Amino acid sequence: AMLRLRLLTWDVKDTLLRLRQPVGQSYAAEARAHGLQVQPEALGRSFREVYGAQSRRFPNYGRGQGLSSRQWWLDVVKQSFRLSGVQDEAALTKLAEKLYRDYCSSHNWEVLPGAAETLSRCRQLGFRMGVVSNFDNRLEVILSQCDLRHHFEFVLTSEAAGFAKPDGRIFEQALRLGGVRPEQAAHIGDDYSRDYRAARAAGMHSFLLRAAGQGEGPEVPPEHVLPTVSHLLARIEK
């Protein structure tokens, strides 16, 4: 059946962009530049623990609790280092500021294979395009730095929306920004519940980026699964 799609919305992290190296390695390298020895593995574990706790305590970068996303992240970085044994508060502040800036650039992010070509082709085919991402307000700059921003009419972050996927209200905002009805839109992302299932619950079409051998997740019709982002074109060019 021909999908009468007008708008494509995109997740970003691990759909279009990925981190060049694990967080623990980036943080450890920055610590070394400040004369501090911290094990990358320990930092990675600390980061995951702190990020999880901060996300539960202050969801969506603390937007509903009066925190700025910048402060939210500075706290996460400092806590991750503290948990890994760094006590020097002046060094912690410097590290946190520097890392917050570094993650705003192509220094730490790279475009996934096939992503730029696929976005270009989708635009050539006349699709309107937008981003729907659980991200803070640095995303516009990151997309610009990685030379992807020009593909999109809008970039809707959970921080700006006030709601994070899988909350359907972020998709409703995206549909309003795109000026289309849900059945005229499809969302592309790598997370089953936040991307695939949430977009479908909002009445949109959806495609799940799921690399081969990526563990057996919930059942998804094969025609909705993308082994790579480049596979999208075969699904929508019909």
From TrEMBL:
It comes from the Eukaryota. InterPro entries: HAD-like_hydrolase_domain, HAD-like_sf, HAD-SF_hydro_IA, HAD-SF_hydro_IA_REG-2-like, HAD-SF_hydro_IA_REG-2-like_cap, HAD_sf. GO terms for cellular component: nucleus. PANTHER family: HALOACID DEHALOGENASE-LIKE HYDROLASE DOMAIN-CONTAINING PROTEIN 3, PTHR46191. Belongs to the HAD-like hydrolase superfamily. This is Haloacid dehalogenase-like hydrolase domain-containing protein 3. It comes from Ptilorrhoa leucosticta. The gene is Hdhd3.
